[in-house]
Design a protein that fits this description.
alpha/beta, 7-stranded parallel β-sheet
Length: 144
């Protein structure tokens, strides 16, 4: 299996645009029956994203929980929010919201990187892009 890495460059400069895009991508993957880990860089960011998943859309619900958590709940939940890699049961899609590329990105079928419109976010994304290339992966670039 070769991991597919996709970078999504946002044109929207609204501060929470990247998080809202991550919510929509998690929702889409969930609707496709995929198991998803949304990786953050801290417990506070995990809690913030967890809250946003409850409120980003009044028309839908994304079943999710925070990892680590109750094993039965985790097994039954398609989307996990974590500041780690999550369990082996959730290896379909990784949405990386952390500033660094994950060391274990190659264990996922897909890795999604969301790049905010500001220069600092673009610079961090360039570093992540190089990390994936150095790991032998071929990232793709998309503009949203």
């Amino acid at each position: 299996m070769s991991t597919q890495v996709d970078f999504y460059l946002l044109s929207d400069s609204e501060p929470r645009a990247a998080l809202k895009t991550a919510c929509r991508l998690a929702e889409k993957a969930c609707d496709q029956g995929r198991k998803v880990v949304v990786r953050t860089d801290s417990s506070a960011a995990t809690a913030q994203f967890d809250d946003l998943l409850w409120t980003f859309s009044d028309r839908s619900f994304v079943p999710h929980c925070i990892w680590p958590g109750d094993p039965l709940l985790v097994a039954a939940t398609p989307v996990l929010v974590a500041n780690s890699s999550g369990p082996d049961t959730h290896r379909d899609v990784l949405i990386n919201l952390a500033p660094r590329a994950p060391d274990d990105g190659a264990v996922f079928e897909r890795v999604l990187e969301i790049v905010a419109a500001d220069d600092a976010a673009k610079q961090l994304a360039r570093t992540r892009w190089r990390s994936y290339r150095d790991a032998g992966l071929e990232p793709k670039f998309h503009t949203l």
